[in-house]
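Q: Structure tokens for this one, please.
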Amino acid sequence: DSAHAAAHIAAHRRRRASALAVGSAAAMAASPAQMAQLGQLLTQTTSGNTQSMQAATEQLRAAEAQPGFGLILLEMLRGASVDAGVRQAGAIYFKNYIRRHWSAEGAAAVISPADRQAIKQHLLSLMLQAPKTV
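A: Here is the predicted structure, written as tokens:
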């Protein structure tokens, strides 16, 4: 039935979001599988297919709540082997992620103090290294 299918899809999205966002602020390292999945989701957000874009955005939004998500995005932006279109979509998503969550503090904070510090440390060097399109 449709309720069972919806529950199955929601559980699958939660598993994908938590697998995507596992990361360490100190190491700023994501597995190749996480990077590939993030790249795929970012590509889907610009696909032009409304249903695919909405599904990818929902999964990315769910992953945002996981520690280290912003750092994984930064790592992707730093990757020279990452497709330029994916890097550009990632840069836009990162900007919006920061805009949505940076000012929240205390219990409402999505970005942990450790992640905030790591983002501050890595952002300037990334901006200096990144191609102008990113």
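A few notes: DSSP finds six helices and no strands in the chain. Confidence is low (pLDDT under 50) at residues 12-28.
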